[in-house]
Amino acid sequence: MSVKQLRTEEMLINMGPQHPSTHGVCKLVIKMDGEEVKYIQPHVGFLHRSIEKIAENRNYPQFVPYTDRIDYCASMNANHAYVVAAEKLGDVEIPERAEYLRVIMAELNRIASHLVWLATFTIDLGAVTPFLYAFREREDILDLFEMTCGQRLTYNYMTIGGVGWDIPKEFEPKLRQFLKIFPSRIDDYEDLLTNNPIFLHRTKGVGVLPKETAYEYSVSGPSLRGSGVKWDIRKAEPYSIYDKFDFDIPIGTEGDAWDRYKVRLQELRESAKIVEQAIDGLPGGDFKKKVPLTWKPPEGEVFCRIEAPRGEMAYHIISDGTPKPYRMKIRTASFCNLQVLPIIGVNHMIADLVAIFGSLDIILPEVDR
Amino acid sequence: MPDRFAGRLTALEMFGNYAYTGIWLLIGVGFVLVTFWFASLIRPQRPNPTKLENYECGEMPLSASYLQFNVKYYIFALIFVIFDVEVVFLFPWAVVYNSLGLFALIEMLVFLLILIFGLAYAWKKGALQWV
Amino acid sequence: MELGVFYILAAVIVVSGLLVVTLKNIFHSALMLILCLFGVAGIYILLHADFLAAVQVLLYVGGVTILMIFAIMVTHQLTGKKIKHYNEQPVPAGLIILSLLILLIVSITRTAFEVADKAEPMPTVAVIGRALMTDYVLPFEVVSVVLLVALIGAIVIARRD
Amino acid sequence: MLELRPIFDAIGEFLNSILPEFWVTIVSAFGTGAIILGVASVFVLFFVWWERKVSAHMQQRYGPMRTGWHGWLQTIADGVKLLQKEDLIPRDADKLVYLFAPVVCFVAAFLAYVTIPFGEGLIVQDLNIGILYIIAITTFTVVSLLMAGWASHNKWSLLGGMRSAAQIISYEVPLSLSLIGVIMIAETLSMVSIVVQQEGWFWNWYVFRQPLGFIVYYIAATAEANRTPFDIPEAEQELVAGYNVEYSGMKWAMFFFAEYINMLTISAIAVTLFFGGWHAPAPFLDFIPSWIWFVGKCLLSVFVLMWFRWTYPRVRVDQLMAFAWKFMLPLAFVNIILTGFGIYLF
Amino acid sequence: MDSESLLKYVQEEYSERIIGGEMVKGVPVFEVKPEKWVSLCGMLRDDSDTMMHSVSNYTAVDYREKHGGFKLVITIFSHILNHRLTLETLLPAKDDEIPEIETLATVWPTTIWFEREHAELFGIEFINHPDPRHLMLDDDWDEGYPMRRGWTGTDFVVKPDK
Amino acid sequence: MATLEHYLILSAILFCIGVFGLLSRRNAVGILMSIELMFNSANINFVAFSKFINPDILTGQIFSVFVIAIAAAEAAVGLAIVVLLYRNFDIVNIDKINFMKW
Amino acid sequence: MGLVKETTSGIYNLLLGLWVTFKHLFRKPVTLQYPDERWEMPERSRGTIVLLSDPETGELNCTACMLCAKACPVAAITIERKKDPETKKNYPTLFTLDTTVCCYCGLCEQACNFDAIKLTGKYEFSVSDKSELLYEMDFLQEIGRDVKYVKKKKAAKKAKKAAPKKDTGEKSAEKPAAKTAEEKKEDSNEEDKAKDKTSGEPKEKGPEDKTE
Amino acid sequence: MGIISKLPAYMETIPGGGILTTTTEKLLNLSRASSLWYMLFGLACCAIEGLMATGASRYDFDRFGMIFRASPRQSDLMIVAGTLTHKMGKRLKVLYDQMPDPKYVIAMGGCANNGGPFYYDCYSVMKGVDKIVPVDIYIPGCPPRPESVLEACIQLQEKVKKEKMGKWSASTE
Ligand code: SF4
Ligand code: SF4
Ligand code: SF4
Predict the structure, then answer these.
(1) Assigned domain for F101 exists
(2) Any residues with CB less than 8 A from the CB of A359 and at least 6 apart, and which?
């Protein structure tokens, strides 16, 4: 702005909170020079629901429904993170069948979440059809969830001590059928997008996230793996029973939007693989261990993290021996991932900014909680 | 000149040809304005200060909208004008090309090449580069 | 009839032309210029120059004025800021020009032009094309050089580096 | 036979018999104007519905279903609703320019229809400079978009207006150049003459002599009509709604109307210049009226445009520009030079 | 490095900066002196044996009743060495006092947002913070620090115990 | 029938408007617009003479095409200069520009 | 060379994309035309909450034990109880459910030991007056009349032998419930029958899709 | 302007005017009801269900003639889908104000109705959208099923169909 030679006035624009590509209620104040974005300042908190405050006033089992709402695209994983942390806090052993069911659900939800991401990402790039295809598959997964726990989005499925419901008997055939057709659906997406020159041009080399920046900003999940870091908590710090399954961690090379896309698409296949293994190896037996409403974990604190679809999700629970947590801090992936946007988004066109935002897979309730 | 052009126009026809354009212009403008007028009869009109404010994603506008734009748009317009002129010259040439033959081709090649050189220059200079 | 159309067009041209030079808002001026040039295209039609009319619209409306609007946007001298749009002497200038106009009109009406009796319209494109390729081939090629120079010059001038 | 020409001829004769020549012109101009306006409106209504249906079925859904049979009344309902929609003008807007932008946009799209041959003899005026006329008159669209973008006094719309202007003018050059090849072969700018020359079997169509020209034309025309993948001026995800962010009600509807009219226009040009206009692909199919052929071909072309839209992502503005200048323009030049040599050699 | 050796390593290497260290549920936890907070973090990041280049979590806890202050808890880890540890520091504060501490933004930029959140929700001031605006709450929020225990405000309804 | 004089007078008026604009406008873009008006008046003259004096050869029209082409080139360069002026001096008002600064 | 390769692969992939959308054009839509076709709600659906009544006597099953109100994370349930002097049984005089705060988590159903409260597959309860969203006891009972359910107690009794503790009994009650889901489907409510025909379709399409 | 509100009174005076009025009224209402374009504006979990899943193939808003518009200027319906915080409330009001009349609001889910699960112990959530904008239809649920949303839309359509001609022309805000 100050250099006379370059005097093209910069335009200060509010992008959001109601903007089609901010995926909810995020506001980006951007400074643009023509089409180029020179400065980004994210404003969040439009969805700050004070869940951490609420947690201090809920019994441990009562808090599970709230975890659904922290990451509504991947509620199962959010449930999982919480119950794993709570069980660790109270040293609760859970039946093996429950572990398997949890893994099946978590991985299915990972698929669903990645599908939502794919949908919104492609619609950010202007392609509407993949959006609807992805949602079509997501519906199939939601059917599975619905028949298991009765809800389509806020499952409240995992409980401290196991899972809330056993799977019904029509679950398995439907799941197997889904697993059978799903790879061909992924092929459809790939045909539509992966090598489409327009798509390539829109994503290759766009929003490159170097490893170092990713480290500094604690980026996690597929966005981190897109930058070529082989880091997945399912492998690095296996929780639940992930060490029993055989799956790969896809990683990218450049760290651009295309890599992040590719990583997620491969994770779809990997997750399907895990689900298949889990359903094959599903043991019988009990599926939950009753934990009373006024469950009192011993005094102490626990920090436990899991790999949610968007990255590292962790619960830091401090218990003072009462049925209610003393303090609960929820660490979410989007909170950290969004912070790199101002770094990797500048000096791109506004269209790229949209693509980058989409490729990072930010979900606002996770940021705001 | 091929036969089909001969004597196709009379004075009135020439005028009449474009009289249509003129009258259609009136029809078009009339149609739109009448629609607007008609809509104004049946639509509500309830302005309020916020409604009349510019939309900016649910926030109040941050700064004035009329501001200086990036020069890149301008450079494209500039190249466009030059090439538009060229197109204008190409049209009459194309019509008579077949009857004039090689000579016309060479002339036009020279013309084109000079401009293609211009394009190449612009390319090289990075004028076609947005960023 | 033709005369009627002529007067309508002339009115459009003159009024919009006047607005071009008097309007405060330069963007409005540009729009008026478009209208004015469109009117001139109408005049060309009356003069049986249909190709020229199309060129006028294509080049002036679609090209030059757009370029001007872009230039306006790039230079940001629009509403809002208090800027003077005229220099100090619009009135003397107007007077001088009025006298010039009267002089011109008088001389036009006094002159007896040798008007050819019949003005048959003819398809102009082919004739123009033929003429360009034969009689006017040199100016034709020169135009391309001019355009090239303009292109290069304009880019050199307008690029920021 | 369902040819419409005799009907119009009869009407013309009738008019000639009762009115002086001057009034015939006036009356027929108004008459044809009204007819074309009606036809265009019907087409637009149909296209909007059709596009929604096509897109829906491509995405395995139904699209409008509940307003009339399979939602055929949907667009009409939309139109009537838009009539009732409050039409607001932002306080800071440049009111007159704001009002006239949709007018210009609509008129520019509408005027092109003066010289589109809908069938044998079904052309309002076979202008001598036909194709040039269409190109010239549609440049007003740029003006209208700039007006809309500027007058709204909104940043998104200003950006959208600038973008679309830059886009349209950039693609205008390859578009015009791609037509030169056809004109070189046809030696005329008149739409009718071009169609007449493509009589007979379908291999007489110019698309087989000008494949490159056709490709360049079609891509450029898609961009001219602001259709995906070149719909950056309206890019919903980036600019909310581009130049018409602030427009509501009927004013917005006019932009919308014009967009779909333009879709038909570019299809009509493609059909006229490259696909033999109203001619049947084979002489023995001539029993089907010419206008049906023309409209059928147009619909096919419109379908392809829709198909593009619902398949591809959107390109970025700089890529769009680069594509126009660095790829399409050279390609158009190559086409001209090849055609030049081709005509000379054969 | 496994947790045990990490615990030992840090205890030996940085003994003058920490008050104590223990193993909690398999993770080394260290109590840090508030004035050494930033420097220790920086060292842990740069030490090639720890390489704590990422933050897993960063919490503030209102321990005013129990320990007489706020606690900052940060969990840091290394992608490369795959180990993590937790650092804690106690900022003494009573009632409505606003404790102060140097910002960690210079060590890990990701803590900027965490600290902004803690600042507005708990009322902890981070000195030299590069961007001390509100994060979650609206700019014109004026009802104090809602995450402090016992906070009440307008429109705040405590769940009735049935 | 509109006669040659009609056109000539129209063109004269247009020309004078152009000159007036040239003299009174301060905005450089406005000045260029005025110049365009003058070009157009000249073109009207060309075409009118061509039609009325010598209708068979379209010399006037061909000249007009050239004029339009040159006008486009002129506009391109002229506006480029305006943009440059604006960039260097932050003004587009001609009389503010002190050429000694160059 | 690179340009040629890029162009050809580009064109190929563009056409591939077109092909994908084109072949979908002829697939049957997966859409459920809602008011005419309905999704078959699974047995465990957690939609609107109802109070169950005894099919024979028509009385509410609820004994106003307050367990549900305690379990509810959002305090959506308000109960006032009275003791019937004759039968010595508690019964609710007031049972309101605030659906505007309820999060349909199902914890109340899990907490209730008397088959009195249930989350059902009903979902059409939009209103234009917000006060109607505070469901009173009568209303809850009314919408719950046609809801079939399996008595937990009976199941629990069966399970009791295996696990004497009440908690575990409740949990294993789930399994019989799941098993009987099939039979109950037919008569669960009238709507279900109408939608039976169509609701299966989206699933059945799976294999066809693949072969294409 | 606003003539439409006076029209019925005039029409009454001419014979058959009453029928004409009702027909016009029906036509206008029907068109408004069948073309409710909703604003692309989701807040939280409910947005996924109410806007995205309902708009996707399985439930398909388009069947009702409902399409999304990004700009409030072209939308008729605001589906408040999700948790409305105080911070967002101000913006929501602006957006609502910026929609041209006729406009409708559907409050979807517990949060939009009354704060939902965030009613208690929560310092940042607004307890009900109806505190700031008038709401036409409330959908209970958390989140409501897509069918519920469709049902709410049908209800809204019914409501629109019953509107009096000129209702929106009255100059009261
Ligand atoms: S519904 Fe069940 S849990 Fe609730 S009060 Fe009645 S009997 Fe007790
Ligand atoms: S479903 Fe959950 S929130 Fe609703 S009343 Fe039952 S326990 Fe409470
Ligand atoms: S009502 Fe429930 S699902 Fe909807 S936004 Fe609120 S918490 Fe999320």
Answers:
(1) no
(2) A121, A203, A206, A207, A223, A226, A257, A260, A261
Mean pLDDT confidence for F66-78: 84
Residue A41 has pLDDT above 50, yes or no: yes
Best residue among G67, G82, G140 to mutate for probing ligand 1's pocket (most ligand atoms within 8 Å of CB) is G67
Q: Are residues C157 and C82 in the same domain?
A: no
In CATH, what number is assigned to the domain containing residue F56? Answer: 1.10.287.3510
pLDDT digits (tens, 9 = 90+) for F14-30: 888 888 888 777 777 78
Q: What's the whole-number mean pLDDT along residues D18-35?
A: 77
Q: Where are the domains positioned within chain H?
A: 46-161
Angle at D265 between CA D8 and CA B23, to 5 degrees: 55
D18 domain residue, yes or no:
yes
**What's residue G205's pLDDT?**
37
**Would you identify the CATH topology of the domain H46-161?**
Rossmann fold (3.40.50)
**Ligand 2 pocket check for G75: Cβ under 6 Å:** no
CA distance A153 to A158: 13
A46-367: what CATH class? Answer: mainly alpha
* Per-residue pLDDT tens over the stretch G120-174: 877 778 888 877 778 887 787 777 777 777 766 555 555 554 444 444 334 444 4
Helices (H), A254-349: 257-280, 333-337, 341-345
What's the burial of G195, exposed, middle or buried (CB within 10 Å: 0-12/13-18/19+)? middle
Ligand 1 binding pocket includes G66 (Cβ within 6 Å): yes
Catalogue all structural domains in chain E, each as residue range(s) with its CATH number. Answer: 3-97 (3.30.460.80)
Who's near D233: CB < 8 A, 6+ residues apart?
D145, D160, D161, D163, D164, D167, D226, D239, D242, D243
Q: Are residues C98 and C132 in the same domain?
A: no
Q: Which residues span the domain enclosing C131? A: 120-161
User: What ligand has the least distance to the C-alpha of H117?
Assistant: 3
Over range A201-230, report the average pLDDT: 83
Domains and CATH numbers, chain B: 71-124 (1.20.58.1610)
Q: Cα separation of D291 and D314, whole Å?
A: 34
Q: Cβ of E153 and H124 within 8 Å? A: no
Domain contains F102 = no
CA H111-H117-H122 angle, to 5 degrees, is 95
**G75 interaction partners in chain E (CB closer than 8 Å):** 159-160, 162
Residue A79, pLDDT above cutoff 60: yes
Question: What is the model's pLDDT at position C79?
Answer: 44
Highest average pLDDT, of B96-100, C154-158, D262-266, comes from D262-266
The encoded tokens of residue D328 equal 């399409």
Check if the beta carbon of residue A10 is closer than 8 Å to that of residue A32.
Answer: yes
Asked if B74 contacts F76 with a C-beta cutoff of 8 angstroms, the reply is no
**Selected residue of E158, E159, E161, E162 to mutate for chain G interface (largest G Cβ count, 10 A):** E162
Which residues constitute the domain of residue D174?
7-345
CATH of the domain at C19: 1.20.120.1200
- Nearest Cα neighbor of A342 from A39, A33, A46 is A39
Beta-carbon contacts of D34 under 8 Å, excluding residues fewer than 6 positions away, are B27
In chain G, what residues touch H159 (CB-CB under 8 Å)? 128
Regarding the domain delimited by G49-146, which CATH topology (the fold level of the hierarchy) does it fall under?
Alpha-Beta Plaits (3.30.70)
- The minimum-distance atom of ligand 3 relative to the CA of H49 is 3
What pLDDT band is residue C159 in, cutting at 50, 70 and 90? low
Whether residue C31 sits in one domain with residue C5? yes
Cβ separation of D238 and A21 shorter than 8 Å? yes
Range in A317-326, B1-10, D195-204, D206-215 with the lowest mean pLDDT:
B1-10
Q: Is residue D156 part of a domain?
A: yes
8 Å CB contact of C65 and D143: yes
C110 in a structural domain: no
CA distance E76 to H24: 69
CB G45 within 8 A of CB G119: yes
